[in-house]
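Students often ask why we bother encoding 3D structure as a string. The short answer is that it lets us treat folding as translation between two languages. Here is a chain of 253 residues written in the first language.
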Amino acid sequence: MQRPVPARPTRLNPDRLFGQVAHRLAVAIITGAAPAGGLLPNEDDLKDEISVSRTAYREAVKFLSGKGLVEARPKSGTRVAPREAWNLLDPDVLAWHFEADPNEKFIRDLFELRLFVEPSAARLAAQRRSAADLQRIETAFRGMCENPPYAEPTVSADLAFHEAIFAATRNPPLQCLAPAVCATIQWSLFLKAPDDRFFFTASLIDHERVRDAIVQCDGELAAARMSGLVIDSLNSTLRLLAGRAQLEPAEGA
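And here it is in the second language, the structure alphabet:
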């Protein structure tokens, strides 16, 4: 049985009321329950779900405004912003997408971004990495090998592997894309069943090959192997997403 996909916003504390309000509003926006251009649900609209204070609501709206999901219009109130205004690479916005509507088009778009970005990051990392960078990459890879498949320490090690590669590029603008890439990786990893050793073993081999190319300072090889890793991850994620979609009607029957 597959584990449910957890919503993992990076900055919201679900124990705080404003975090609960922001989460509910964001999911309503992303699913279209609160359509673009429409007024944002107010405190009274949310009272059936949670107890909302005026202060918590205002904090939540301010938080969502900073991510481009809502906009305040003079004399017309706070309204849902059009999708093109959303900060789609924000890790919170990505997490809400994954919870609300992880459709195939959105997944393909994110992996297309990975395919543009990560091979270039691997190429630069191979050319610029230091001994300390190699140690970070190796430590992360060992963490993936030494922990159970898809356990939280393993996921953390996988994310650390990719973060270490971005850090080794010595390119701050490129490093700014690391959180979006890691949010996508994290979501796809939590789709997978803990006993699914086939995909896990294949993924370890892909990561090892990328590591070896970076160790060898071979930028082109590192880029090619990272491309293979991303494509393999996309294919396995789409298979798992399709399987999850097939299970849902049966579970609700």
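Translate back mentally: The radius of gyration is 20 Å. Keep this in mind for the problem set.
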